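This week, study the protein below.
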Amino acid sequence: VTGVQTCALPILPVAWALNASCGALAALFIYLIGVRTAGRRVGAIAATLFALAPGNVFYSVTTLTEPLFAAALTGTLVAFIASDAAPVDRRWRWLCCGTLLGLASLVRGVGLMFLGGIAVGWWFDHGFRVAVRRLAICLCGVVLALAPWTVRKDRKSTRLNSSHLVISYAVFCL
């Protein structure tokens, strides 16, 4: 996103298209979440309300992180719901879900707090052991996504950076 934002004027249509396509992708993911949880009618209403709300699917002169984060987080939620509904509990699915959540957290660090709510849901639905096992696997995926960025930022500067703060805040919240 930053690369698109810092480019010259001729690349502005790319920024506009990126904002609009991320917002539309988030609306599609919201539709899929609604269909999976409550049916087609609820999915269509939720996606329509999201798309009609100001600031979700739009053109802007700058590339914004809100549409990208909304698309990434709702896509992660779709992956979590699909993995939880699968007949066989595969560890690689939870690792992929954790990696997607880690990538969403690279856009906005508050995405990591989402995993706490998912873990509580697992605890109520499947019991404590299953919740802890899935949470540990998802955290490995989150670390897989965040570690390269943290190492890169650590090598570039010697002072404490935002990646350290995001990771420590997420660990504190969980």
User: Anything to note?
Assistant: The chain has a mean pLDDT of 80. The CA atoms of residues 105 and 111 lie 5 Å apart. The two ends are 28 Å apart (CA to CA). Residues 128-156 form the longest helix (29 residues).
